[in-house]
Amino acid sequence: MKLYIKNMVCDRCKMAVSQILTQLNIEVRQMELGEVELNQDLDENTQSTLAKQLASIGFELLDDKRKKIVEKIKNVVIEMVHQSGTDVDKITPSFLISERVGRDYKYLSTLFSEVEGKTIEQYLIFQKIEKVKELLIYDELTLSQIADQLHYSSVQHLSNQFKKVTGLTPSNFKELQHHKRKAIDAI
């Protein structure tokens, strides 16, 4: 049996979900971001208990097929942006999303827009801007290195996109005392 879990977007999320599954004596065959494959099917009572426990820590057990596909798309985008330096860097986002989700990109793009109210491209941009904020706060890389790492064509392109989304230039953002970042699952 496969479960699809909304907001499961990082390794800590996987650990939290794993702890709940262990507490409920549910055996896991394989776990990926947003997806858990179990060794057995769950009865309604166990599935309801699991859904409640997941909800108590900010996750949602998905049962709608469209939402499951959208969650897969989000997880691919998050992996592309937040785990850069991997082989996914060399592949266009549309090709990678289509390949990982196993559907035509045009269908996925339309579905994502219908369910989320924004395009995959907008979601990708918002994720990239959050990553830029994170890297600016860490203050370990120059803006040029950040632009390079996130595959912007230039520092100017990154700066323009950053200002369009946040209302601030990257320099203004760095000067703020209270950095306003969003959680990955809130984007």
Task: Calculate the mean pLDDT score and round it.
Answer: 90
Task: Let me know the largest β-sheet.
Answer: 4 strands, antiparallel
Low-confidence stretches: none
Q: What percent of residues adopt helix (DSSP H or I)? A: 55-70%
- Number of discrete helical segments: 9
Percent of sequence in beta strands: 5-15%
Organism: Arcicella rigui
Protein name: AraC family transcriptional regulator
Pfam families: HTH_18
Keywords: DNA-binding, Transcription, Transcription regulation
Structure description:
The structure is a single chain. With 187 residues, the protein is an alpha+beta fold. The chain has 9 helices and 4 strands.
Briefly summarize what is shown.
With 187 residues, the chain is an alpha+beta fold. Helices cover 58% and strands 9% of the residues.
Task: Considering the chains and any ligands shown, give keywords for the structure.
single chain; 187 residues; alpha+beta; four-stranded antiparallel sheet; 9 helices; 4 strands; globular; DNA-binding; Homeodomain-like_sf
